[in-house]
Structures are given as C-alpha cells and as structure tokens.
Design brief:
The complex is a heterodimer of chains A (493) and B (122).
Chain A: H1 6-23, H2 27-55, E1 58-61, E2 72-75, H3 77-104, H4 107-129, H5 133-152, H6 158-188, H7 193-201, H8 207-223, H9 232-239, H10 242-268, H11 270-273, H12 279-299, H13 304-325, H14 328-359, H15 370-373, H16 375-389, H17 395-409, H18 413-439, H19 444-447, H20 454-472, H21 475-489
Antiparallel strand pairs in A: 1-2
Chain B: H1 5-9, H2 11-29, H3 33-52, H4 76-106, H5 111-121
Helix pairs in contact in B: 2-3, 3-4
The chains are: A mainly alpha (493), B mainly alpha (122).
Chain lengths: 493, 122
C-alpha cells in the first residue's frame, strides 16, 4: 500500500521533517528529526528505484486527479538516478552536519539550518520527480529560498551579501524559466511534460517556440551555473556553512542539469532543437569556455572553498558538453558525471569542511603541512582531487571516458583533445592544494592540530571510497546512466 | 492608425514586455539593494500579466458551469499565478530580511559602499 505512494513520500518526508525541525528550538533535537527524515527518504528512494527497474516508468497522480489536468509525478530511470544522488548525499552528510553545524552556527539558529537543509532537499527531489513544468518552478523556488537562507547562516558577514546576490540571480533565473513555460502554455495550452511533448511534436517550430526554448535555457542556465552565468556560485559556495556547501555543491547544480536534459530531450525533443538556430553549438562553445576558463581561475584561487567552487563551474561544463553533443554515449557521460561529480565534490567539500573545523580557516597559506597532521582528511581530499582530474581508477575517469568516446564517435578528435587538455589544468589546481598540504613543513599553528573527529571523518571517507569504488566497478552508476540515456533518446518519457 | 494597429492588437503584450524590461533594468542599473528588490518584483509581476492576459477570452464569462454558458475564460492561469504570487512574496520577504541584516552589519545598503568596505577587509 505504502509502496504505491513512494513518489510523493520522497518529497513529503523532508517537507514535514522541515516543519517539525522548525518547531524545535534545540539544535540537537532538530538534527535528530532531520536524520530520521533523510534516512527515511533514502530508504524510500531505494524502494522507488527498485520499482522503476522492475516495472518501468511510474506515474503518480497527485490527489487522484488524472494528468494532464492534475499534477503528475513521473519517475523513469533518468530522474530515479538524480533522486538517488540527492537523497544519498543528503543522508551521508547528516552525521557530519551535527558536529560541523554546532561549531559554525550559533545555538539558536541551528534548528533553522536543519529546517532549511530539509526544505532544500524536498525542493530538489521535487524538481526531479515532478512531471509538470509549473510544479517544477514551485519546487525550484522552494529549494532556492531554502538555499539562500542556508548561505546567509554562514559565519562571516560576507555570507549575507553572497546570499543576497544569489537571491537576485536565482530569482531572475527562475523567472526566466517561468516566462519560457508561460510561452509554452500559451502555445500548447498544457503544462504536463508528456502532454507538452505530444503537442510540441505537432506544432510548427516557429519563433515563439524558439523564444520559449531560449528563456528556459537561460533560466536553467543561471541555476546550473553555466558559464558565463556562474558568477553567483563561487561566493555562495565559499560563504555557506561547510555542511551546506557540501550539500549544494553535490546536488543543486545536478538537479538543474537534469531539468535542462528533461526539457531538451523529453519535452522539446532533441530533433526539434537542431533547427536553424544553433542552440546546441552555442552550448558546446559555452561548456568548453567553462572547462578552460573556470579551471584556469581555480588555479590562482587562494581560498580552497572558492577553488573547489570554480572547479564546480568547470565540471558543469563537462555535463553540458555531453548534452550539447546530443548522442547517446555523450548523454551517458553527462548522466554518469552527475553522480560522479556529486561523490567527488561531496568528498572534497567535506574534507575542506573538516579542515575548517580544526583550523578555523580554508585559505591555502594557512594549510601548510596540514596533510601530515590530518592524514585521513587530506587523504580523502587527494582521492577527490584525483577524481576531479580524471585519473583512471577514480570516478572522474569514467565520466571523461564516455565523453571522449562520444567525441571520437562524432569524429571530433579536437574535442577529445580539449577534454584531456582541460583535465590537465585540474592537475594544477588540485596539485597546488596537495603541495601545500603534504609537501610543506607544518608551521607552529598547524603542527598542534589533530585529526578531525570521527563523525566528520566517516562521511568523508565513505564518499571518497565511493569515488574509488565506482571508478573501478561502474556497473551501477554507468549502467543506470546508459539505460537512462537510451530511454531519453528514445524520446520516451 | 495603420501604424498603431499592431501595437493596439497586442496591447497586453507590449505592457508585459515594458514591465519586464523596466524591472530587469532596475535590477541591473541600481546599486541600492532595496531598489534592486523593487525592480525584481516588477520583473516578476510582469510574468503574472504574461500568464493571465492570454487566458481571457473576449465575450467569455467566468468559468462556472451553468445554462446558456458556452464560452468562458481559462481559469488555469489564475490558479498558477496565485501560486507564483505566493512565491514572489516569499522571495521579496526573504530579500528584504537579508537587506535588513546587511544594513545591521555593514551600516549601508549601497552596493558600491559595501564593496569598498570588503576591499578594506582583505
């Protein structure tokens, strides 16, 4: 009985968890509620995934109203993968959150942090699970508003400024998206993804449709930090509390990428998009620019959180690159990179959060020799860093392998060369951190430090181990991604 | 009148586009954080118009089932925009709340003055 309602439960559990958390005043009680909610959500997600694998696409009618009139939650392999990423990361970070949040956020605001954490997860899962364009907007705003608040809870006064700037950019992005959806509604008269796809297929692809596509692309592009719309991201990631950064960096941009994929492949239809206006070529150029420019900026960044944030912009470039190549192999690369990047960036930000916990700073010059006093933490960072570069045996290699193969399949050997070349820049920014952390003598302050507490280490080690595990045996992640990409290419929804 | 015809025929859309661009311009051009939020609100409000105005059908009544009623306006946009208004209000409230806090810690809400303070910090 309850298994029938799994698609809506994965949204409702964190939503009501947030409500309960908001009613408590003690941080530890609020944390307990959030932990239960996140673990339940993860369990429900796994149940949902096995249902999708077993029975195929699941359609759930909200309130018993049949689509296209009612809102439909629709789960296929692509969004099951994305939901799995979000709920896994959200649950794995929870043990970490308690100690880190207790140090970084004042006692009477801790309950609010967990409220926002759960609201953000509810919103992100909502975007992924819904089959309704307007409903996706509402969830986009739920997760965004929670994110702004989470960033504003950071330690420095700069956090408030970053939150404000992100609020302006994020709202413009969401409004652009909703303008695009509004145009689609005016053209077709429907909001349901399946219904939209069916009606767009028989509607002439005219200027109004192209305008809708443009608005949706730019709107989601702002949300997923597509170069050059990424300016909000480094400040937002650098100034949020460590736990919040790890959650956002591993999940928020991934869900936006998923929404763009859904719009391009399921709603508009990729054959429609390849028209007179070079949409995919434009995305290709922007993603290559992101891969090089953002990696290059990261090399010169002194704040390690900002360094990793710029690296995120570059990694989003790889995801959009896969989308813009528009072949089944490339899309597999994109989808598998969603999962892989969540693992590696989660591990990297958790490791840096542990450094911030012990050292009280994340600037590179203060981290001299930190690897020698915190070997496990920085060891995890190195594994995550190797994944970012794409060293064989780590998850980063799997993603780049698919992208390079896709480039060769299209005969674009120059693109394969660029993917490898941009990975080399990652060697420099990861290398800088590794050099300072391991090959410099610890100074007076760092030599007195000890290894981070177990609750911080455990989630970091789990994610770093996953980076290696799924790098060696990619049958789960790549297998899911490949099947999802095939389904998306079949145009089925 | 010939020249005005295309403008009058799509009068609602012209208003929508004007509000949209004006709002976006205020967000970009103003350094005062409150004014930026007002611009953002204007921008969001223009979208309400974009949704609602095509929903009206000339000669149509309110969407109530009854005798002799055959043509009625589309009720869906109204419901959607009711939701969008709630989202807009929440965004504005959060934005204003942030500005209050920024004013408390920086003593100003002018962006350029805040950036000068930040440069001094580093």
């Amino acid at each position: 009985m309850i298994s029938h309602h799994l698609p809506v439960l994965i949204v409702l559990v964190p939503l009501f968890g947030a409500l309960l958390s908001a009613l408590t005043s003690r941080g530890s009680v609020s944390w307990g509620i959030a932990l239960i909610a996140m673990v339940t959500t993860l369990a429900a997600t796994i149940g949902l995934l096995s249902e999708v694998l077993h029975d195929g696409v699941i359609s759930y009618e909200i309130g018993g109203w049949a689509p296209p009139i009612g809102i439909e939650y629709r789960v296929d392999l692509a969004n099951a993968l994305v939901i799995l990423i979000v709920s896994t990361i959200a649950a794995v970070i929870m043990p970490y959150a308690r100690v880190s949040v207790a140090k970084e956020i004042v006692e009477d605001q801790q309950a609010w942090f967990y409220t926002m954490y759960q609201l953000c997860v509810a919103g992100l899962i909502g975007i992924a699970v819904t089959g309704d364009a307007f409903n996706a907007f509402v969830f986009l705003e739920v997760s965004s508003l929670a994110t702004y608040t989470m960033i504003a809870l950071g330690q420095s006064r700069r956090s408030l400024l970053s939150a404000y700037q992100y609020l302006i950019m994020g709202t413009i992005g969401a409004t652009f998206y909703i303008i695009g959806v509004g145009l689609l509604l005016t053209i077709t008269g429907t909001l349901n993804f399946v219904d939209l796809a069916a009606r767009i297929a028989v509607t002439p692809y005219d200027r109004a449709m192209l305008t809708a596509l443009a608005f949706i692309t730019v709107g989601i592009g702002l949300k997923l930090a597509l170069f050059p719309l990424h300016v909000w991201l480094p400040n937002a990631y650098a100034k949020a509390p460590s736990t919040g950064t790890a959650l956002l960096a591993s999940t928020a941009t991934k869900v936006a990428v998923y929404l763009l994929i859904r719009m391009y492949f399921s709603v508009f239809g990729i054959d429609n998009i390849i028209g007179d206006f070079p949409v995919l070529e434009l995305l290709l150029v922007l993603s290559i620019a992101a891969m090089f420019f953002a990696s290059f900026v990261a090399v010169f960044e002194r704040n390690v959180k900002r360094l990793l944030a710029y690296s995120s912009v570059a990694q989003v470039g790889y995801m959009i690159l896969g989308l813009s190549m528009a072949t089944s192999t490339a899309l597999t690369g994109t989808l598998v990179h969603l999962a892989n990047h969540a693992l590696m960036k989660g591990a990297a930000f958790l490791a840096i959060g542990a450094v911030a916990y012990q050292l009280g700073s994340v600037s590179l010059e203060k981290m001299k020799g930190i690897g020698r006093v915190m070997p496990v933490t920085m060891g995890c960072f190195v594994v995550a860093g190797l994944s970012l570069i794409g060293v064989p045996g780590t998850v980063g290699f799997i993603s780049k392998y698919y992208l390079v193969v896709a480039a060769f399949e299209k005969g674009w050997w120059w693109l394969a060369f660029m993917i490898v070349a941009s990975s080399l820049i990652a060697v420099f920014y990861v290398g800088r951190v590794v050099e300072v952390a391991w090959f410099s003598e610890p100074d007076k302050k760092t030599s007195e430090l000890k290894e981070a507490p177990l609750s911080l280490l455990l989630p970091t080690v789990v994610l770093a181990a996953a980076c290696v595990f799924f790098g060696v045996d990619a049958s789960l992640t790549a297998g899911l991604a490949e099947a999802a990409a095939k389904a998306l290419f079949g145009g089925s929804l | 009148m010939e020249v005005l015809q295309p403008i009058l025929a799509h009068f609602n859309h012209w208003i929508t586009i004007f509000l949209m661009v004006a709002g976006l311009y205020v967000v970009v051009a103003r350094g005062n954080m409150i004014k930026k939020l007002i611009g953002l609100s204007l921008f969001q409000t223009s979208v309400y118009l974009l949704y609602i105005s095509p929903g009206k059908i000339l000669g149509g009544t309110a969407p109530i089932i009854g005798d002799n009623i055959e043509v009625y306006s589309n009720p869906l946009p109204h419901v959607l925009i009711l939701t969008a208004i709630v989202v807009g209000v929440a965004t504005l409230a959060l934005g204003l709340g942030l500005v209050v806090r920024i004013n408390e810690v920086y003593g100003t809400i002018e962006e350029d003055e805040i950036f000068t303070q930040e440069d001094d910090d580093e």
